[in-house]
Amino acid sequence: MRDMKISVILALIHHGALERMYGVRENIESLSRSLSSKYSLRLTEIHHQTIDEIPAVEFLRRKIFLNRQIKRWSIYKDDLSQKFFEVSTTNSVLKARCSIEAILSGKHVYAWRTLIESNLDLLVVMEDDCHKAPKSDERFLALLESLDSCKSIAPLYVDLAGGFDICAISGGISISPLEQGLVKFAKAMTNTTCAYMINRQAAEFFLSVIRRNPDFINLPADWLLNSIFIELAENNVDVFCIHSSPPIFSHASKAGVLNTSI
Q: Using CA atoms, how far apart are residues 97 and 46, in angstroms rounded to an integer?
């Protein structure tokens, strides 16, 4: 028996594009109905953004920094096949994308801070291309039941929407199957940031890494998370990292249902 309800923040991250919102809102409404009887639930949306042009020098600095992180990532997962990013300062599309990616990362960091300030237990982050998949609600509830002791697990990261094949992204990191369609990673990593869940302990560690490495905030959101995982591993902090396989939710951009917004 649970002494008190586990409390969950469900955070929707978007940029106000109404045409992209129908699927994710349907997902959230359905999930909220399923969760409300057993869990304390709070909904929030994070969407404010102002896109500023990035000077050429700053764009170049950010992309060089990203490529350094990619090199660290290749070593971390024992896979030297990772491609590097173009750093040409004449590519206006890449410069605009760089600004948008930093804004998106800032929204994720804001969500982590919201969890800490709320004193709740878990944060589920959904971007606007997170749609329902078969038995999404049922599988997510089963996941929460299996993590009923989440208050004592530190820190926790659960990838919920995938995007890329798990075997393809894991590189040299060993993975092991768990029950209920879950896979445990020996080293923490994200697939994409379409949807994931963390506990308070993870959020506290994530924010501590950001404070020590402020340049991380300008990385794309998936590289932000993976860079944080590298830092934590180098400081002997173990992250309990599991991925749902098949994903609990559908990554609509990767599935071709929506065009990517970046």
A: 19
CB 122 within 8 A of CB 197: yes
- 182 forms beta bridges with 244
Q: What does the pLDDT look like over 139-165, one tens digit per residue?
A: 999 999 888 655 566 899 999 999 999
pTM of the model: 0.91
- Rounded Cα distance, 216 and 213, in Å: 6
Instruction: Classify the C-alpha dihedral 60-65-66-68 as positive or negative.
Output: positive
Backbone angles phi, psi at 248, to 5 degrees: -65, -40
Give the integer Cα–Cα distance in Å for 106 and 142. Answer: 31
107: enclosing H helix or E strand:
helix 92-118
Please give the CATH number for the structural domain made up of 7-251.
Answer: 3.90.550
Query: For the chain, which residues make up each domain, given as ranges?
Result: 7-251
Distance between CA atoms of residues 161 and 248, nearest Å: 6
Exposure class string for 154-192: b at 16+ Cβ within 10 A, else e: bbbbbbbbbbeebeebbbebebeeeeebbbebebbbbbb
Shortest CA distance to 197 belongs to which of 135, 255, 249?
Answer: 249
Identify the bridge partners of residue 8 per DSSP, sorted by sequence position.
41, 122
**For 120-136, what is each residue's pLDDT tens digit?**
999 999 999 999 999 99
Give the closest residue to 242 by CA, choosing from 139, 141, 156, 134. Answer: 156
Q: How far is CA 52 from CA 43, 95, 122, 257, in A?
A: 29, 10, 33, 29
d(CA 54, CA 72): 25
